[in-house]
UniProtKB/TrEMBL annotation, chain A:
Protein name: Butyryl-CoA dehydrogenase
Keyword Oxidoreductase: yes
Lineage: Bacteria, Bacillati, Actinomycetota, Actinomycetes, Pseudonocardiales
Keyword Magnesium listed: no
Acyl-CoA dehydrogenase/oxidase C-terminal domain segment(s): 155-286
UniProt xrefs under InterPro entries: AcylCo_DH-like_C (IPR036250), AcylCo_DH/oxidase_C (IPR009075), AcylCoA_DH/ox_N_sf (IPR037069), AcylCoA_DH/oxidase_NM_dom_sf (IPR009100)
Keyword annotations from UniProtKB, A to Z: FAD, Flavoprotein, Oxidoreductase
TrEMBL record, chain B:
Entry protein name: Long-chain specific acyl-CoA dehydrogenase, mitochondrial
Span of domain Acyl-CoA dehydrogenase/oxidase C-terminal: 228-366
Source organism, top-level taxon: Bacteria
Keyword Flavoprotein: yes
Keywords linked to the UniProt accession: FAD, Flavoprotein, Oxidoreductase
One Pfam family cited in the UniProt record for this chain: Acyl-CoA_dh_M
Family that this chain belongs to: Belongs to the acyl-CoA dehydrogenase family.
Residue ranges annotated for the Acyl-CoA dehydrogenase/oxidase N-terminal domain, each copy included: 12-119
Known cofactor(s): FAD
Residue ranges of every copy of the Acyl-CoA oxidase/dehydrogenase middle domain listed in the record: 123-215
């Protein structure tokens, strides 16, 4: 047993980190200027990131999605990387709706391929009305099924795993930004990070994220259901978001501050791909499934 | 990245599982009673005879040289089998790592086998009335005498001390605060020692006060250098908070029982709490496997042990609270869940309170200013 990234996986993570750290494309994407973001996606495709679910192991997918979350990269990442590999037909980005838990297709105006998955059967989709999300980087579209493509197994679970990893990355970014901020913001003549009320909240966030991470990677190795990963990562990231906003004070409650990119992303992803309640029901169902030969 | 057990570990797991299935006694009386203490001591002896009491120790002291991973597997099997609480835990999990790191070969050879067989059960004597979270405020002292030292002062909250044989703790030999403390081992039956049991919240004398009045301790019962006790003690502290005192096995077993309790009493309003408890136990297990990988690469436990301690202590309370809710009106009636609940309440207090652990996480891991 070695429950740690292999040297190749660690290097893959570092490469993604270095690439995405330089990209600052979320605000343009939210404003409708997708070109800078698409340039990053083309770069990722060249590196093989968009086909990671086909070419690699689920752990590699988690590594990629954690980086996407950490750097708040916009675009239908879960859909393209985790759900639809093999169905992109050479297109850069693809998106899908999987009712009831994924009622809309994200960024269907940017993705070249749009699908709907109904009862395990994939259809091409025709985008309809656009609905705005709490996350300005996520444009939501109603989709109606057009042509049947065929059965697609495990799509929802792969999406849930990818969403968990994205939440985990976003949560880690929120903690990192908060730690930086409380070290430099001064009140009462001291950095606010020296106050115990601030320290203890951030310590709790750290504990939550540290214990969520192995659940996400464990789900990639089938040690726990992906629903457990969504619950653990969703709750840890959400706590990170609430705490980040609180320790930033009013500056965090502004659109100008970059914190808002992660705050809105985490709020959106917390209920996307199945709420905590949906996933808790799924976990309990697996725990109480009668033991039998199958 | 993988979670697969190697063939040797799988073989070990199978052996432990079948041995425990054949030998785990039906419920013993509480280890905080005189009879229960001796019954638990006898069980430890049975484990020792099978070389299962301290599997990770070297064979010369009664262990099997098992890897950290195998020890975790042993713990999972142990608690899954519903085996008794470990009366010797403070010796084998807290003092022994200190002896391995700082003890002399003579001390190890003299003390470890009797610790492993529970012929000698040890109590940790660190806290004092004025030195709780602020352990460096220790006042109990040691004065040099011919061939040894004379210990004086008062220790308190010492678990198992009511019935244990020996104690270990810090005493002031010079200086102030962290400087000038020395790590001693002493007999709880020596002349000058008075042990006064203290009833815990459950009414049983789970810990005790220890009064020392010129208690003679020979030089060979000092661990590490004189005046260097703080450094020696801190190496035990991360064991206490970290893996060894509370391995994932016990929480996995509790979570499994909680799921079964919910199946018997399926209150839909409590479903989510049961699921969260189960996920928490899995998270702690997987996190620990990550720690094993880090240690194998030469990493150390250090401040990360505070993350462990915060997590398991809060998880333990949450699981037991949920069980009592499920039991409804039966929740206040005597039973294993209530016992476990009362015990879980102490988790955020002992081994360094959770407030202190949050300070450690914030300052030493996140780098926030003091
Ligand atoms: C069941 C049980 C078993 C124990 N077993 C042993 C044993 O075997 N051997 C042994 O030596 N000791 C043992 N202890 C004692 C334990 O280590 C101490 O209780 C613990 O260190 C806290 O010290 P205290 O009780 O004096 O509380 P205090 O230090 O007085 O703390 C009281 C409260 O103040 C808070 N506080 C204190 N300082 C700070 C700070 N700087 N920042 C924020 N909050 C602070 C604490 O977090 C706590 O909430 C045991 C305790 C229990 C409950």
């Amino acid at each position: 047993m070695k429950f740690a990234l292999s040297p190749e996986q660690a290097q893959f993570a570092d490469t993604l980190d270095a690439l995405l750290a330089k990209s600052d494309v979320a605000r343009a994407w939210a404003a409708g200027d997708h070109e800078p973001g698409l340039a990053v996606w083309r770069h990722l495709a060249d590196l093989g990131v968009t086909s990671v679910a086909q070419d690699g192991e689920p752990v590699d997918l988690v590594v990629a999605m954690e980086a996407v979350g950490f750097h708040a990269l916009p675009g239908p990442a879960i859909e393209t990387l985790a759900v639809l590999p093999g169905h992109t037909d050479g297109a850069l980005l693809a998106t899908v709706a999987i009712p009831p838990h994924v009622p809309y297709a994200v960024d269907a105006h940017v993705a070249e391929r749009v699908f709907v998955l109904r009862n395990g059967v994939l259809f091409t989709g025709t985008p309809g009305q656009r609905i705005s999300s709490v996350d300005p980087c996520r444009a939501l579209f109603e989709v109606t099924p057009a042509t049947e493509v065929g059965p697609l197994d495990g799509a929802f679970d792969r999406g849930v795993l990818a969403c968990s990893a994205q939440l985990l990355g976003a949560g880690r970014a929120l903690l990192a930004r908060s730690v930086d901020y409380v070290k430099q913001r001064t009140q009462f003549g001291k950095p606010i990070g020296s106050f115990q009320a601030v320290k203890h909240q951030l310590a709790s966030v750290h504990v939550g994220l540290e214990l969520a991470r192995p659940v996400v990677y464990g789900a990639a190795l089938n040690a726990v259901p992906v629903s457990a990963a969504k619950i653990a990562a969703g709750d840890a990231a959400y706590r990170a978001a609430r705490t980040a906003l609180q320790v930033h004070g009013a500056i965090g409650y502004t659109v100008e501050n970059d914190l808002s990119l992660w705050l809105s992303k985490v709020r959106a992803l917390h209920t996307a791909w199945g709420t905590g309640s949906v996933h808790r029901a799924r976990v309990m169902a697996t725990l109480t499934r009668p033991a039998g030969p199958h | 990245m993988d979670l697969d057990l190697d063939p040797a570990t799988l073989g070990f797991q199978a052996e432990v599982r079948s041995w425990l299935a054949a030998h785990v006694p039906s419920e013993l009386p509480s280890l905080d009673t005189a009879d229960g203490f001796e019954a638990h001591r006898a069980w430890e002896r049975t484990l020792f005879d099978e070389r299962l009491s301290v599997v990770s120790w070297p064979a010369e002291y009664g262990g099997r040289d098992a890897s950290l991973l195998q020890w975790l597997v042993f713990e999972e099997e142990y608690y899954a089998a519903g085996a008794p609480a470990r009366v010797s835990q403070n010796g084998i999990f807290l003092l022994a790592p200190t002896l391995f790191a700082h003890g002399t070969p003579e001390q190890c050879a003299r003390l470890l086998p009797a610790m492993a067989s529970a012929e000698e059960v040890w109590a940790q004597a660190w806290s004092e009335p004025e030195a709780g979270s602020d352990l460096a405020a220790i006042r109990a002292s040691a004065a040099k005498t011919d061939g040894g030292w004379l210990l004086s002062g008062q220790k308190t909250w010492s678990s198992r001390a009511a019935f244990a044989d020996r104690g270990f703790g810090l005493f002031r030999t010079s200086g102030e605060r962290h400087r000038g403390l020395t790590y001693f081992m002493f007999s709880l039956r020596a002349p000058g020692v008075t042990v006064r049991p203290i009833a815990q919240l459950d009414g049983e004398p789970g810990f005790a006060e220890i009064f020392l009045d010129d208690v003679f301790v020979p030089d060979e019962d000092v661990i590490g250098a004189v005046d260097n006790g703080w450094q020696v003690a801190m190496s035990t502290a991360s064991n206490e908070r970290g893996l060894s005192l509370r391995s994932p096995g016990r929480f996995l077993a509790t979570a499994g029982r909680l799921v079964r309790l919910w199946q018997a009493l399926p209150d839909p309003a409590l479903r989510d709490r049961v699921v969260d408890a189960w996920i928490g136990a899995q998270a702690y297990r997987l996190y620990t496997f990550g720690t094993v990988a880090r240690l194998a690469e030469g990493g150390s436990l250090g401040a990360e042990s505070s993350v462990n301690k915060l997590f398991w202590s809060e998880l333990d309370i949450a699981m037991h609270e949920t069980a009592l809710e499920l039991l409804g009106g039966e929740g206040e009636a005597d039973g294993p869940w209530l016992d476990g609940y009362v015990f879980s309440l102490a988790g955020p207090i002992y081994a360094g309170t959770n407030e202190i652990q949050r300070n450690v996480v914030a300052e030493r891991i996140l780098g926030l200013p003091r």
